[in-house]
Amino acid sequence: MPFRIHQELFDSGREMSGTVVRVYQYGGLLKLRNSDDEWLAAQDRCEPVGRAPAPIERAESKKPEPLRIPPGTIPYPDCAPTDLQVGDFVVVDGQARRIDNMVGRVGTGRRTLFLDGGLVRPAKAVQNVYRAYP
Predict the structure, then answer these.
(1) Tens digit of each residue's pLDDT (9 = 90 or more) over 61-110
(2) Nearest-angstrom CA–CA distance, 32 and 20
(3) What is the DSSP string of 55-116?
């Protein structure tokens, strides 16, 4: 179990509780301190006192939101990079993002898309696009 600095622990080897001062990377040791003493303790003999620390929520642990089609748009499946327009919505990482600007040569199909939220992506060969009603 990973322990954190300033976490209150009970050392069953010494029958004392203390605060974590240092977590040693190797050997499974902790340096604990209380008002009377400072000592090394084995991690497997220590237990948290009180409530456990809150788990850290990572981005990859969250479920992705379902794709929301932008209102007032219709799908254009299999759109080539040369057919993209500023104002179209492309799907990036499961979300529809608006194209704010494009850079690239006309006719070559090599375009860089500047999307809302500051994202920059190259245009794919063929992608699904949502475009405003004509």
Answers:
(1) 566 677 888 899 999 988 888 888 999 999 888 888 999 999 887 666 67
(2) 5
(3) PPPPGGGSPPPPP-PPTTEEEEEEE-GGG--TT-EEEETTEEEEEEEEEE-TTT--EEEEEG
